[in-house]
């Protein structure tokens, strides 16, 4: 059976309405592109997956789901608990010193919302040093390697997308990997999925010879790890623990020894960080349990009464805001990765999708949603992990989470809020070290100088009267 026949039997005959108008070379290119897509996603199965995703989006909760905060055995906090934090840090540093920790960065997004065509990790939030997100994170990794006396560079796996792969690699090369060893950085692409019309019945064309394709969501990380040989590489390097995070968090602590120690001390195979909800009305996904299994619940899934409910300490019962910052035991990935890739559900996103109309032989740019993009969510595997093996660590938002999501001038999560969070944190470290900071002055502490506020004693008594970046 030809690839054309395979798609036709999957109900996609409309893809070929212009077939007779194509040259032999164009037909060959079209078939090659269709074959490439089919090798990753069987067209018949894709149609079924899309229909099921539409059904799931229409289904309401059955009303019998029991949504509760995580049990205390799975939920921990280091807020105001310096002794516990130090205990976890010591355990994590010991593991880093064994060379058994790696980091995975999800960096497939472009800075489109920020007005940039570059990968988001290349973005300059306006620090005095003009450091990019990639440089900020790379230098934290450098510093941690020195603190932990790592026997070798910490492996850093960077998941890009088709549009961001080449410019990301070029950015690292042009900047000499920001001081890291080039051999410790591995780039790999997340997958793509074809787009459908709004009924989920017909695939859309991007050109006369190719389908519309888009990234498969952050849940595509699992298949990307599998398909690109990342798991095999982790095993070959005797890595036991993986820290995963998103590129847009300017305060992220790569391979955080406190987080690693928390997971190890409690024998968790999958763990996640959370920050405390600002208030009951904050629209954020929550780490919780559903029917006794760990999960992320959307804010729309809990009632107003549940959102406002408090515990015996007067804190919100549902307060663990999801920040997509996870720990994985490599043994868990070895055991479950194949199953996750096969069983994870798809979700739909209705979008305005430009497409090629092969019936009228025109390109169409819609003004309203006309199609469906499929995606997977990284937290959809949480319910597959026994709650006794799942942990959530509450950390300080001001120290660990300030995402860059929106354009300059918007209300929150923008370059200005990210810059302020980064500068406020570094300045607070200097104050704690005894430095004298002028009114309204903010000082940038690069990762090469301090990973988490350490090694700043030499600035005791020093006066800072203008915004600047401390030199390493």
TrEMBL record:
Presence of the UniProt keyword Nucleotidyltransferase in the record: yes
Record field: catalytic activity: N-acetyl-alpha-D-glucosamine 1-phosphate + UTP + H(+) = UDP-N-acetyl-alpha-D-glucosamine + diphosphate
SUPFAM superfamilies hit by this protein: Nucleotide-diphospho-sugar transferases
Keywords carried by this UniProt record: Nucleotidyltransferase, Transferase
Domain of life, per lineage: Eukaryota
Top-level EC class as recorded in UniProt: transferase
GO MF terms, alphabetically ordered: UDP-N-acetylglucosamine diphosphorylase activity
InterPro entries given in the database record: Nucleotide-diphossugar_trans, UDP-sugar_pyrophosphorylase, UDPGP_fam
EC number(s) given by UniProt: 2.7.7.23
Pathway assignment: Nucleotide-sugar biosynthesis; UDP-N-acetyl-alpha-D-glucosamine biosynthesis; UDP-N-acetyl-alpha-D-glucosamine from N-acetyl-alpha-D-glucosamine 1-phosphate: step 1/1
UniProt-listed GO biological process terms: UDP-N-acetylglucosamine biosynthetic process
Family, similarity comment: Belongs to the UDPGP type 1 family.
Protein name: UDP-N-acetylglucosamine diphosphorylase
Species this chain originates from: Lachancea dasiensis
Lineage: Eukaryota, Fungi, Dikarya, Ascomycota, Saccharomycotina
């Amino acid at each position: 059976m030809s690839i054309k026949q395979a798609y036709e039997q999957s109900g996609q005959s409309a893809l070929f309405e212009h077939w007779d108008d194509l040259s032999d070379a164009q037909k060959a290119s079209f078939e090659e592109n269709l074959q490439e897509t089919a090798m990753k996603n069987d067209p018949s199965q894709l149609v079924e997956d899309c229909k099921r995703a539409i059904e799931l989006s229409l289904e309401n909760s059955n009303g019998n789901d029991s949504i509760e905060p995580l049990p205390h055995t799975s939920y921990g906090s280091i807020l105001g608990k310096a002794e516990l934090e130090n205990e976890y840090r010591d355990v994590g540093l010991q593991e880093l010193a064994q060379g058994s920790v790696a980091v995975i960065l999800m960096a497939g997004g472009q800075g489109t919302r920020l007005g940039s065509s570059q990968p988001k990790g290349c973005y300059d939030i306006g620090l005095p040093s003009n450091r990019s997100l990639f440089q900020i994170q790379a230098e934290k990794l450098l510093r941690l390697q020195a603190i932990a006396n790592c026997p070798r560079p910490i492996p850093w796996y960077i998941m890009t997308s088709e549009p961001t792969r080449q410019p990301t690699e070029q950015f690292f090369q042009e900047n000499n990997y920001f001081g890291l060893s080039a051999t410790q950085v591995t780039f790999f692409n997340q997958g793509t999925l074809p787009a459908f019309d709004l009924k989920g019945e017909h695939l859309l064309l991007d050109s006369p010879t190719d389908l519309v394709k888009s990234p498969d969501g952050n849940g595509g990380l699992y298949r990307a790890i599998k398909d690109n040989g990342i798991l095999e590489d982790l095993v070959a390097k005797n890595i036991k623990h993986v820290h995963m995070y998103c590129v847009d968090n300017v305060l992220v602590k790569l391979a955080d020894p406190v987080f690693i120690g928390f997971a190890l001390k409690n024998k968790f195979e999958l763990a996640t960080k959370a920050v405390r909800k600002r208030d009951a009305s904050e629209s954020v996904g929550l780490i919780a349990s559903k029917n006794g299994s760990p999960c992320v619940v959307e804010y729309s899934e809990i009632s107003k009464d549940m959102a406002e409910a408090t515990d015996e300490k007067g804190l919100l019962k549902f307060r663990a805001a999801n920040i997509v910052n996870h720990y994985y035991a490599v043994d868990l990935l070895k055991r479950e990765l194949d199953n996750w890739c096969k069983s994870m559900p798809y979700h739909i996103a209705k979008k305005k999708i430009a497409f090629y109309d092969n019936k009228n032989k025109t390109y169409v740019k819609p003004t309203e949603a006309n199609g469906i993009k499929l995606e997977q969510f990284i937290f959809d595997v949480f319910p597959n992990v026994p709650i006794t093996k799942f942990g959530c660590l509450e950390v300080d938002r001001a120290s660990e989470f300030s995402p860059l999501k929106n354009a300059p001038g918007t209300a929150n999560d923008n370059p200005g809020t990210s810059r302020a969070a980064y500068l406020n944190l570094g300045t607070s470290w200097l104050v704690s070290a005894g430095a004298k900071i002028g009114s309204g002055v903010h000082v940038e502490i690069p990762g090469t100088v301090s990973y988490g506020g350490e090694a700043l004693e030499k600035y005791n008594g020093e006066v800072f009267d203008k915004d600047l970046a401390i030199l390493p």
